[in-house]
Specification:
By secondary structure, this protein is an alpha/beta fold. It is built from twelve helices and twelve strands. The strands form two sheets. The chain has a six-stranded parallel β-sheet, with helices on both faces.
Length: about 300
């Protein structure tokens, strides 16, 4: 029985990192089975986190400014109210939170933290292995397979043999996007194989879905019509998923959906690729210029 009764986990974002933290979330929960586990996160992930079995409480980080003395004092009291803190974000901000709290029973990368991750190679590790190494140094030797099934219900219905298409990515990183015209050609090929292409994304991806549907009438457009939690349920029921290096593809892989992820030069799959529930890897195609990646090569990888 561990003495720590109040546990704080810090994971602020982004979606892919949040999903890759699933094994760490589950490992912390199992290690502190009788403790109250609180997650500090940002607003986009709060509702999602409240539906997961690993947290008793979810708190939204208000990101107080340095000049807001009262807000900083409240944050300091909050951070000092825990027996142990696991900083899975390990950003400059979350590390500063550790300094604000005075260090102590923290797992992170800041000086003075009792469970400081001292691995000199941590920045060359995939996110999953980096978290595994960090928690091992804090006494959590094994990360279990995370159970996301609490999120697998309530999503919109899918037709039989659905193929999820994720043509979007961070708008400020266009090199991460395979051209929408290529997704449209791929959708037509998938439809010819008896699959129903289903385009996912936020409202900003609606023009991409319109282009795809303009060339493949069989495709369905769910852009702007799903919540983050819905994506887990869709991935659980889909036959396969194809998309750029972006959050929904992490969800697809985490749910065990057969996944093909397209990487351009802006990110390294060895460090950030989605992972399967057992820690395995989905199919990855990397191209120096995604615009030059032939549709035929992607379609062949799905044969």
């Amino acid at each position: 029985m561990l003495a720590a009764r109040r546990i704080l986990v810090i994971r602020l974002g982004a979606l892919g990192d949040f999903v890759l933290s699933g094994p760490a979330f589950a490992g912390i929960r199992a290690h502190h089975a009788d403790a109250e586990v609180t997650l500090l996160t940002t607003a986009p992930y709060a509702d999602l986190a409240r539906r997961l079995p690993w947290f008793d409480r979810v708190v939204v980080d208000r990101r107080p400014r340095a000049w807001n003395v009262l807000a900083l004092a409240r944050l300091r009291r909050f951070l000092r109210g825990f027996d142990r803190v696991y900083d899975l974000q390990t950003s400059s901000r979350s590390t500063w939170y550790g300094r604000l709290a005075g260090g102590g029973e923290w797992s992170g990368i800041g000086r003075g933290m009792r469970y400081r991750d001292t691995d000199p190679d941590r920045d060359r590790l995939h996110t999953r292995e980096r978290l595994e190494g960090q928690l091992c140094q804090a006494g959590i030797a094994r990360l279990p397979v995370p159970d996301w099934s609490a999120l697998a219900t309530g999503a919109p219905e899918l037709p039989p043999r659905a193929a999820l298409l994720v043509p979007g990515a961070a708008p400020h990183r266009p090199a991460k996007r395979w051209p929408a015209e290529h997704f449209a050609e791929l959708a037509a090929i998938l439809a010819s194989r008896g699959l129903v292409p289903v385009v996912l994304g936020g409202p900003a991806e609606a023009p991409l879905a319109a282009l795809i549907r303009g060339r493949c009438a069989a495709a369905l457009d769910l852009t702007g019509r799903t919540t983050m939690a819905d994506l887990f349920g869709l991935a659980a029921r889909a036959e396969l998923a194809v998309g750029n290096d972006t959050g929904p593809m992490h969800i697809a892989a985490a749910m065990g959906c057969r996944s093909l992820v397209l990487f351009g030069p802006d990110s390294d799959p060895a460090l950030t690729a989605p992972r399967l529930p057992d820690g395995g890897w989905p199919t990855v195609i990397r191209a120096q210029n995604l615009a030059d990646l032939p549709v035929e090569r992607v379609a062949a990888a799905l044969s």
